[in-house]
Specification:
The chain is mainly alpha-helical and about 130 residues long. It is built from 5 helices and 2 strands. The longest helix is centred in the middle third of the chain and has 29 residues. The N and C termini lie far apart (about 110 Å).
Length: about 130
């Protein structure tokens, strides 16, 4: 073959290193997108919060018991003490059951500095305690 013919024949161009870089970038972008999607799909939801005004419930019950004591004698005082102990136990049981029922974390209302839009379960607990 002559030198003239070898110059005019198109030689197959070897692929440059840029296609490898392009494929690597595409794979990297796809795996990053998949990781971000997996995070957003599988991450747990933020905890729900609610409040409870325990002090208000105690104060209301204390007023009721004080009226009972003021209206009676020795027997009324003993009965008020028994009712107070019963109330404390029932309140504790109801407060411990509340997070399971609402699926939330219950905060004491006095501990919440901001975020007044949180649901308040004081009325719900008050009704349950009066029903018993």
């Amino acid at each position: 073959m002559s030198e003239q013919q070898s110059r005019s024949a198109p030689a197959a161009a070897a692929p440059g290193p840029w296609w490898i870089v392009g494929v690597g970038l595409a794979i990297s972008a796809a795996s990053s997108a998949a990781a971000v999607l997996a995070y957003h799909v599988t991450r747990p939801a933020p905890p729900r919060l609610a409040t409870l005004n325990v002090a208000q419930l105690f104060n209301e019950r204390q007023e009721e018991l004080m009226k009972l004591v003021a209206g009676g004698g020795e027997g009324a005082t003993q009965k008020a003490m028994e009712m107070a102990q019963s109330f404390g136990k029932e309140l504790e049981a109801q407060v411990l059951a509340l997070p399971r029922e609402c699926g939330c974390i219950v905060l004491v209302r006095g501990a919440v500095v901001a975020g007044g839009e949180l649901p308040d379960y004081t009325d719900v607990l008050r009704q349950r305690l009066r029903a018993r």
